[in-house]
Amino acid sequence: MSVDPQTRDSGVSRSSGQVLLAIMALAVFVSVLNNSMINVAIPRIRADLAVSASAAGWIITAYALVFAVGTALYGRISDFISLRKTFLVALLVFAAGSLMGALAPSFAWLVAGRVMQAAGAAAIPALALGSVTRLFPPGERGQAFGTVISSVGIGAATGPIVGGVVVSLGGWPWLFLGTLMLLILLATATWLRMPDTAAADRAKGGLRHFGLMGALLISLSAAALFLAVTGLQQAGPDSPRTWGPLIVAIAAALGFAIHIRHSATPFAPPALFRNRTYLSACGVAVFAQAAFLGGGLFLIPLLMIEQHELSPLGAGMVLAPSALAIFLFSRMAGRLSDRIGPRRVLQGSLALVLMGLLFLSIQTDSPPPVIAFGLLVMGIGYAGVMSPNANAASFALTREIAGIGSGIYQLFFFMGAGLGASTVGAFLSHRQEVATAALNPLYTAAASAIPYSDTFLLAAASTVIALLFTLGIGARPRKETGTPDIER
């Protein structure tokens, strides 16, 4: 093990920390870019492979399902195995899925490629959060989280534009090939330069203490819940496609709770779920994600295309300012959460998200630049949620459980996104079928936009719940003794 001459008191050298953050930020960018540019290619994929709209939805659903489940599993694996090796294997799996997608001769092969992509990409958010928790001390993590998370905005902003250009010029297989080339570069950088956790900072006992039964139960619960919210969106609350998976999800969650309380080798330590700050951060993740992803990134394109009759590219331009705001303000918000604690940053940021949603509920029928302004306010607020909330969740995590704690937090995070989109979609459909007065008394514009105004209010209610969860987050991080070693 070599030691950088610029080693800081935290135990992680400045140069090693910068390399780690650069690799993780690039990985997050590639993951977000891959998903956001594939979305705009779905109409062309449907035409080329002759599949129905409902079948084409599996391009998104299969990826999201495997991705959500995989985050917790990768997090637990990284508690026992080298961070660098785990990350490298995940990138290679991601690359293999990209190659399958590029060469796909049929729709089934393409969906299999998307599943393989998700099986690798799921490692990125869990290991990014877990590596920062392990290798940076409290007081420095917020800025580090902000650096990694800022790349979300770049990927979200450029994905639709890159996707549109590439599909127009070369066809959708080139999207997968482009992702493959980026992943090869990223895997090379990971192998040559990424710092690693020391063996002493990993969980003791090896993978025989992984907690296989707990892994199966939490995976079943997450997958069933995801299918339930998908069923809610497609078939409504009374359909067996909704309540059937929901029953399975609840039963598996109860089984998981019993497992971690009574197993000699639990998948996650029971104390993690008794930590008020950690659970509160998970609650914020669920409802803030539901508000912004459902009320913003999911609802705004529908409003722009269906109500304002913009093209997909035009709708993407409305989204671009908010994505840019996430890039610009995430690192600043993380640094501020290190200085004054996450709770106040979260409360102020969620207040901005709430203001943006209430503004959009009133201005739903206004011109696109006005809608873009409301979404920009939401984007500035959301930038102040992601890294401070991850920082708050990290307060509860020692190095030995940083992986599983980060993985479960990310599981809540992505389930919030799925829940938000499905709930918003189902509520919007309901309000479009039931013609009544606007729920917002300040809305006085066109009646045709009332369902969108009401749906923005639903997202605002989710933001209020997220604000309530911030009351359980500690104002300052706990003191942590010891510092991690960095193996080079």
What does this molecule look like?
The chain has 488 residues and is mainly alpha-helical. The chain folds into 2 domains: 14-210 and 267-477, MFS general substrate transporter like domains (Growth Hormone, Chain: A, Up-down Bundle), CATH 1.20.1250.20; 211-266. Helices cover 75% and strands 1% of the residues. The chain is built from 17 helices and 2 strands. The chain has helices at 14-39, 42-49, 53-56, 58-80, 83-102, 107-121, 123-135, 141-169, 173-193, 212-235, 240-262, 276-307, 312-340, 342-362, 368-394, 402-433, 450-469, and strands at 196-197, 486-487. Strands 1-2 form a two-stranded antiparallel sheet. Helix 4 (58-80) packs parallel to helix 7, helix 4 (58-80) packs antiparallel against helix 10 (212-235) and helix 12 (276-307) runs antiparallel to helix 15 (368-394). The protein is globular, with a radius of gyration of 22 Å. It starts with 13 loop residues before the first helix and ends with a strand.
Keywords, separated by commas or semicolons:
single chain; mainly alpha; Growth Hormone, Chain: A; 2 domains; two-stranded antiparallel ribbon; 2 strands; 75% helix; transmembrane; MFS transporter; membrane
Helix count equals: 17
From the 3D structure, determine the CATH topology of the largest domain.
Growth Hormone, Chain: A
Number of strands: 2
Strands side by side in the biggest sheet: 1-2
SSE topology string = HHHHHHHHHEHHHHHHHHE
Main beta sheet: 2 strands, antiparallel
Distance between the termini: 6 Å
Structural class: mainly alpha
In round numbers, the mean pLDDT is: 82
**Principal-axes shape call:** globular
CATH class of the largest domain: Mainly Alpha
User: How many separate structural domains?
Assistant: 2
**Beta-strand residue percentage:** under 5%
CATH superfamily of the largest domain, please?
MFS general substrate transporter like domains
What percentage of residues falls in helices of 4 or more residues?
Answer: over 70%
